[in-house]
Amino acid sequence: MPRTPEANQRIREAQRAKILESARSVFARKGMEATITDIAAEAQISLGLAYRYFADKEAIFSELVKQTVPDDSAGFQKLVEMPGTPGERLATLISSIVGARGQREPLEAHQLLHHALNANAMPEEIRELLGKRYQMLLATMRQLIVEGQATGEVAPGDPDQLVAVMSACLDGLTRWALRDPEQFRTYVPDAQIVLRLFQPLTDEKKASEQS
Amino acid sequence: MPRTPEANQRIREAQRAKILESARSVFARKGMEATITDIAAEAQISLGLAYRYFADKEAIFSELVKQTVPDDSAGFQKLVEMPGTPGERLATLISSIVGARGQREPLEAHQLLHHALNANAMPEEIRELLGKRYQMLLATMRQLIVEGQATGEVAPGDPDQLVAVMSACLDGLTRWALRDPEQFRTYVPDAQIVLRLFQPLTDEKKASEQS
Q1: What is the interface pTM, i.e. ipTM, of the complex?
Q2: Is the Cβ of B171 closer than 8 Å to some Cβ of chain A?
Q3: Which residues in chain A are contacts of B160 at CB distance < 8 A?
Q4: Tell me: the pLDDT tens digits for B18-31?
Q5: What is the CATH topology of the domain spanning A69-199?
């Protein structure tokens, strides 16, 4: 009995997913030097079959990055509108970023991006996507900082400077997580330390600085 | 009149210094792809003359790194023994690191190291020197943190964790300074923000976290 068109479609989708999954681990292991031959071998399919699904390695890579970096504008919007004080929402945002660095899966995804950026092998379309998403993260952070300064939960000062210092620190933490995931996981739970970057001075300290 | 041996010595030293200075700007511009030919051209001397002072590019590079990363053990020791509270000495240490990133000269030196590390072109001897110096910095920081926790100036918690988070943040700041020195300089003066990573909670906040 011949297969129905629906069954064929399911098989194609499963095949495609399998190639992407294999590619993810090959890229994580070999970086941008991975070839489509490596990916086909990992997926235990022929090279010819791999080419029926993707035109080249770059197409596979682009698809992976799109899966990894979902369009999160809705997520940021939800965060801004969440109940709780601005300081609490800021804590949620930073904790989720720091926490994600300690988990295996988002970390591998990050490793993938890191490889691509370092190898200057990032397709333009993907580079734009990432840039947009990063800008959205910074804008969300900035908005919560400004609101948090109004409630007194966030230290006063130029919000752009606070955003810049925090994002540099998050960058440093990410690089640490990529370099030594085991060590990072031992330390990671404490996003509270990172959040102190936004913390207003104690009254005692304020007095001693003014004196 | 023939030149005296002293005069010859002076000329040789000036020549050597000129080669090193030229090499510094060539390495800063071209990274580890710079050749000894580039360096000779920059110094406006012949290639043959350059080779009379240095066996190869690596020898020039090693010398530059040694100049850049002085043996600072005495400096760290002095800092630990400085008058003032541990919190104040910690502030001096962190401010001097953050401040240095905003200055052109130490930044160029850092750029040099960064190039070499990325290109895996760091001679073993220099790699060890850098590793030692970095460990000494971390040990100094750790000691001041422990002392600062005893005086209540530094937030309680695992000192190794505090050292790790601070050094990740400093790493992120350094990368930012290397990527965009102009933007960094606009923001740099505020080491106070970075120092908040060590700041104890306000009494108010402490109370709300315990509730």
Answers
A1: 0.71
A2: yes
A3: 187
A4: 999 999 888 878 87
A5: Tetracycline Repressor; domain 2 (1.10.357)
